[in-house]
Amino acid sequence: MRYAIYPFGGATVKLVQQIGYVHAMDLLLTGRLVDTDFAEKIGLINQAVPAGSLMDWAMEKAQAIAANSPAAVQAVKTQISASIADYSISREALEQQLGDKVRASSDFAEGVAAFREKRKPNYV
Fold this sequence. Notes:
The protein is an all-alpha fold.
């Protein structure tokens, strides 16, 4: 079942930056779920790791990062985070305005009711 969903927290902006317009529009407009292979293929995730290997993988990744210059690692993290945040902040007002409009719509109320009642929504 699909429900009226509008992503919050800058998701529309960030998703387009992460996986591109075509894939972001597909996922946001259809609300479809994807498997790990597809998520990895489009860059939604960088790597799928079996649960039993997760701690080893995480430690290996952490050690690789820790082997680099702490100043360089921190600078990269700061720059990337600031760049994403700056762009997202520039879109916050529109996102809030659109989200408010969606939440005030009869479609939103119907989507919430359908979800609670575990039925398919009936958008008129």
